[in-house]
Known about the structure:
The protein is an all-alpha fold. It has one domain (9-233). The protein has 13 helices and no strands. Helix 2 packs across helix 3. 35% of the residues are buried.
Amino acid sequence: xxxxxxxxxxxxxxxxxxxxxxxxxxxxxxxxxLSMFLDRDAIRDWIRARSTFGxxxxxxxxxIQVVIFVIPGEVVQVAxxxxxxxxxxxxxxxxxxxxGSIFNFAVGxxxxxxxxxxxxxxxxxxxxxxxxxxxxxxAGIFLLFLIPGIPKDALCYAAGISRIGLPAFLVVSxxxxxxxxxxxxxxxxxxxxxxxxxxxxxxxxxxxxxxxGLLYKERIQRCIARIIRKGNRA
Length: 234
């Protein structure tokens, strides 16, 4: 890690202020957001009603999900497949995710370690630091973003205070995200086509992988750190 620290009050209070602002916006638009994120048909109707701006609206929706990382990204990605099909839905989701990742990375880099420590606990940040501080940080980031259940959107903030540059981060993190995005889009596309069996099979596999990653994320992070360290000594 570069150990960037911002001693100003702004860096220490930025995250609580940021969350408070988001909560105010969420409360103000709670009815629309609930209907959109809990009902795929509502998302489809909302986007189609905007005609030529629908795709841009969807990308914006995906960007918002990345920034407000507590919202499950799979909901939007499944909706993308439901509305646009597997490949177009995947491409639009990826576009919004890349833009959101750039924003999160830039915020982490601009506000520094105090901000990122407010996102993660100090212990969790320490395990992530051991991966990002290694000489093969790119490989570590790829593995973290590949494994379901790891908080990828929040990790973008942590990457901002590491030594890795934005272009390299975007390449490896995007490659790690692609399988999950395509899988989610496939579920939405299969549901729209009435192929519920295929959608259910993918859902079961994805849920199992997500649960495994969520339950064992700390062990997975330690394992990745050990692999990276061994690779550096080789």
